[in-house]
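can u do me a favor
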């Protein structure tokens, strides 16, 4: 079992003012560092890392500027130390559909993302796909909706897919 997790709007809290993946997309470095993590992330991720025996990967779509801001945020948060996810378990791609390529290479069995289109690209590659956070539309077939990190714990550890 290997777990993949998106970063923007899954690990890093969403913006309350726009629809960008990361709330600091156009912000200054100060704004980046002040952006909070999603509620529950630091309580749940260490347990997921334990249950997946360290086989947890961050896979995010980001161009160079946002990659740099994301790395700065992760460092500032001491994210890898606080979650026990290995620091070299971070992958970036330039297109959302390319997350599926990383999943194939990493043999990801479970993936958490806030975008149904991304998870649809993983059909036939990732067996368990979780649509994270509030959604405006019905959850597409083949995906499991998880409203929050608490929901992730309930779904993954209840024996459900």
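np, heres the sequence
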């Amino acid at each position: 079992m290997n777990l993949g997790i998106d970063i923007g709007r899954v690990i890093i809290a969403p913006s309350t003012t726009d629809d960008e993946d990361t709330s600091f997309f156009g912000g200054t470095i100060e704004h980046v560092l002040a952006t909070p993590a999603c509620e529950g992330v630091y309580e749940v991720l260490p347990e997921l890392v334990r249950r997946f025996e360290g086989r947890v990967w961050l896979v995010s779509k980001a161009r160079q500027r946002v990659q740099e801001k994301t790395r700065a945020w992760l460092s500032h948060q001491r994210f890898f130390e606080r979650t026990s996810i290995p620091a070299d378990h971070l992958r970036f791609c330039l297109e959302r559909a390319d997350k599926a390529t990383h999943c194939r290479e990493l043999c990801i069995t479970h993936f958490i993302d806030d975008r149904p289109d991304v998870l649809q690209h993983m059909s036939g590659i990732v067996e368990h796909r979780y649509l994270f956070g509030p959604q405006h539309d019905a959850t597409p077939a083949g995906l499991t909706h998880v409203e929050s990190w608490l929901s992730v714990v309930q779904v993954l550890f209840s024996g459900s897919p």
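Residues 14 and 23 are 5 Å apart (CA to CA). hope that helps!!
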